[in-house]
Amino acid sequence: MNKVAHYLQEHLIGEVFTSPDTRSYFSTDGSILRIMPSFVVYPRNENDIRKTARFTWQLAERGRVIPITARGMGTDTGGAAIGTGISLVFPAHMHKVLELDPKSGVVAVQPGTNFGMLQQTLHTHGRIIPIYPLSSEYTSVGGAVANNSSGERSGKYGSARDYVKSMRLILANGELIETGRISKRELSKKLGLASFEGEVYRKLDTLIEENKEIITNMPQLPKIASAGYALADVKRRDGSFDLTPLLVGSQGTLGLISEVVFDSEPFNPETTVMTATFSTRALALEAAQELAAISERPAIIDFIDKHLIEDVYRINPQLLKDVIDPPLPEIMLYIEFDDASTRQQKRLAKKARKIIEKHDGFLAIANEEHDVDRLKAVRDSMATMWTHVEGSARALPIIDDAVVPIAQLGALLSGIDDMMQRAKQAVYGVSGSALSGAVHVVPLLDVTQIGDRQKIFRFIDEYYALVISLGGSISADHGDGRIRGALLEHQFGATVTELFKAVKAVFDPYGTLNPGVKFGTTLDDVKLIVRSDYSARQNLQHLPRV
What does the buried/exposed string (b/e) look like for 169-198 if buried means 16 or more CB atoms within 10 Å of the residue's CB? Predict the structure, then answer.
């Protein structure tokens, strides 16, 4: 151990590692990137986080910057869970459900808590956090909040930002603060504090007041968008103020989360599930828009495009047997109603049947032709693509995240096909939500081949330019990270991007909090840290989801 590691180990209860094997393990996340950390720290409690942050702040004051990268399960596909300095790994010790009120459904948890385990705990009390990411079985709560995660039910319920009530946060200098909406009078008290917390409130309030017009005129992105920082809801017209919306989705660039308080919803395990296949995309998307317009909208309207269906059928046709048989459809919709009343679900299913039949869809309803698990298994089988290997080629998470207005889904899917044809990319899959507009594209590429490495950046450039042109957001489920962070100025323009950088400087004046994430990384920088090989092995104990 070097002097820094010795100092940290002497002052922390948790463990500090500098071994090559440990550092190598934490040099990758779910992305195609690799950055070797200098230290790996497993904090045991809030004080360990505070001491680590305070130590790096003091070093930075003397001109030596050691970055801190907060890390949960390491599934981030944009490179936000890797960094050069300290990898602060939460799941080892800080994984507890601290408090749960069964009546209100409010729950307080530590950031390293597994999201799937949290859901199981809530289910025993008849509750659910419905914005769970599709990777919830192998995702941490802290990671979900840091990315403003969304998932299969987000078209109905929103994103993490809609369910985080408050949090305990360690600022860059080690100060502990609690967030939550405060009144105009309470804000005045915060502005008068002599601490770094007071400085943050003063500077941020000034930034918001001086840039009201810019904030008001920021691009109106789809609801679950997570690009940039969410400034619009920090200060409301009544003068109330809340840092929480800003911190959700900030990916550890503004502070280190030590506790999160969530709202939840009543949980109904009995849902009505159906699938529908169509001969054209246009018919399917028209049907989806009508389904979304039902007053009691479905919880889920997922779509799986023909390319992904064809890929799964080629890899393992048994996964689709009796639900999707040749001739294979152009597109499949997976629909789920979760209303509290079974009677209501049946009524809505009848409406859905009429809409689907009107658009010439072939319908399969659970408990009629198939059981619920069978239809869900067909939808989940599309994740086969995430773990499929052909020679050295693998499914790369490079354009796996975006969201567009649902009226633009058809244009986006056509644009994806055109892009792939121009690049002579034969194997790829597309899936997403026709309710939220989230889209996931999975090309099979070989990072050891120069031609495919060039395709990576060609696809990133072309795809996200298309998304932006359609009024969409480059980031939805997964956050900006390093890859999409390099495109923020294309998304928002120079003026808004500079405002975001000013916000970052308020919270992190020395640049110790996850530098290079959201800002400070170009695509040329990204090219230098692409792995020489790629594997999603960290997810293999669970079935990845698309």
Answer: bbbbbbbbbebebbeeeebeebeeeeebbe
CB 228 within 8 A of CB 215: no
Give, in order, the Cα–Cα distances in Å from 261 to each of 88, 110, 144, 478: 21, 9, 13, 20
Tokens 């502070």 label which residue? 255
Cα–Cα distance measured from residue 391 to residue 382, given in angstroms and rounded to the nearest whole number: 20
Instruction: Give pLDDT tens digits for 154-184.
Output: 999 999 999 999 999 999 999 999 999 999 9
What's the predicted TM-score (pTM) here? 0.95
DSSP 478: S
- CATH ID of 272-385, from 3.30.70.3450, 3.90.830.10, 3.40.50.920, 3.40.50.720: 3.30.70.3450
Q: What is the mean pLDDT of the chain?
A: 94
> How far is it, in rounded angstroms, from Cα 247 to Cα 224?
15
* 239, 244, 246, 249: CA torsion to nearest 10: -160
Give the count of beta carbons closer than 10 Å to the beta carbon of residue 283: 18
Phi-psi region of 310 (alpha: psi -120 to 50; beta: other; left: phi over 0): alpha
